[in-house]
Amino acid sequence: MTRLLAAGGLVVATAGRGWAAWNIEYRRLGHGSGGGWPTTFADVGAAIDHLDEIRTDAQLDLGRVVTIGHSAGGHLAVWAAGRPRLPEGAPGWDPRVRVTAAVAQAGVVDLALAWDLRLSN
Known about the structure:
The chain has four helices and two strands. It is an alpha+beta fold. Strand 1 (66-70), helix 3 and strand 2 (101-105) form a beta-alpha-beta unit. Mean pLDDT is 87; it is low at 1-5.
């Protein structure tokens, strides 16, 4: 869930160790992008849920799905892991594929504290 260039090396290294790797892109913030709440989160949830539709020669172990992301991607990686606890009707609340672990690299995971600290400044 990091930028494509940064994630490219991580994806190659992960796959080289025998893990299936899936690089998710999502709509970002910006004029005309359509990103933000809830579309960015819906993109991530849909991409993860799509794993149960992929047909490949490799056996995907959907009981061990790990997300990793940097910065905003780290926030989304952790959000994806918490999807089963979302209230009914919230975007992503009923995942078909559950994330079992998440790694946030410099992810802002406490948005209220980030606001209080004015991290966006």
